[in-house]
Design goal:
With 309 residues, this protein is mainly alpha-helical. It has one domain: Ribonucleotide Reductase, subunit A (Orthogonal Bundle). Helices cover 75% and strands 0% of the residues. It is built from twelve helices and no strands. It binds fe (ii) ion (2 copies).
């Protein structure tokens, strides 16, 4: 077992909550429904489409659907490495606390189910939307790259993602009355199971943090910065692809300036969704402050600055 004592009670609470909310993709979430293409998918708080004042109401709806399709695909992407990382973390409990082991096995099982849910949503989106959309990154290639980083950095990134999942749902998706009903339900059910994941991320991250020497932690901070850079690289490519798809499937042509503003607006929204909004979550900031030195915190802040708009 590791240097830290396992808090069995907290793992047990996660198992109990996980049992209580457990849902089925078809019976509870999809219920033979289709995505309503007359309504937006991703709400304004995440899509930031309001800044593109030259778009018509119909174009805004369509751009929110393009972004919303990518939002679902991005979760399908990151949950591959999150699930594998949690299976890897479970190793330290194999011959130890069986409650902690069960909690992490349930976590991984839920992420496998979520990946299937997001594949189903992609198929439903493809059914109704114009042809030509492509989600370029592949889950296994990204997972292979991410999992080469130190465990501390991967757990930090995981905790960040699972915290912003909560915040996005509670602050933006839940209160938006106008978005497609099935789309909101997907993220409501997802949020319910993710609530336990955040607690487990924090427990595993703290356990890993306690194992590290100051020198290893310093290297792990660099790994985290590199991981954020790798995510940003994916966002740049996907924002370009999505802006292109949106503009080319739109009935009216956009001017060069308008097309450039759409591309910049989509990249800004993606950086907000997948990097900046999570880094601003007070619970994440505090955990990071507790684990790192002021010099390390400054390094992280400096790396994030160019991504903030
Ligand atoms: Fe998930
Ligand atoms: Fe999760």
């Amino acid at each position: 077992m590791s240097l830290t004592t396992v808090n069995t009670e907290r793992y047990a609470q996660c198992i109990a909550a996980s049992r209580r909310v457990r849902w089925d993709i078809d019976r509870d979430v999809i219920r033979a429904r289709r995505l309503d293409l007359s309504k937006p998918f991703l709400p304004e708080g995440l899509s930031r489409i309001g800044r593109l004042e030259f778009l018509t109401p119909t174009e805004r709806v369509r751009l929110s659907q393009v972004q919303g399709r990518t939002y679902a695909n991005m979760f399908g992407l990151v949950e591959r490495f999150i699930g594998i990382q949690m299976l890897s973390c479970s190793r330290r409990h194999w011959f130890g606390d069986q409650v902690a082991l069960e909690a992490l096995v349930r976590f991984s099982d839920e992420e496998l189910k979520h990946q299937e849910l997001f594949r189903r949503i992609e198929r439903l989106a493809a059914d109704g939307m114009a042809p030509g959309y492509a989600f370029a990154p592949t889950a296994n290639a990204v997972a292979s790259q991410v999992l080469e980083a130190s465990t501390w950095a991967v757990l930090a990134l995981t905790c960040h993602i699972e915290l912003f999942t909560q915040v996005h749902y509670r602050q933006s998706i839940e209160p938006s009355a106008d978005i497609a009903e099935l789309y909101r339900d997907v993220f409501r059910y997802h949020w319910q199971e993710e609530s336990q994941h955040v607690i487990l991320d924090e427990l595993e991250w703290a356990c890993e943090n306690a194992r590290l020497t100051p020198r290893a932690r310093d290297a792990a901070v660099d790994d985290l910065i590199a991981l954020v850079g790798a995510i940003d690289h994916i966002l740049q490519q996907q924002a370009t692809a999505d802006a292109h798809y949106f503009a080319h499937s739109n009935p009216r042509a956009f001017s060069t300036t308008e097309a450039e503003r759409i591309a910049a607006g989509v990249l800004d929204a993606y950086r907000w969704q997948y990097i900046v909004s999570g880094m601003q979550v007070p619970r994440f900031r505090q955990t990071l402050i507790d684990m790192t030195t002021p010099a390390q915190q400054q390094r992280i802040q400096a790396a994030l600055l160019p991504l903030t708009n």
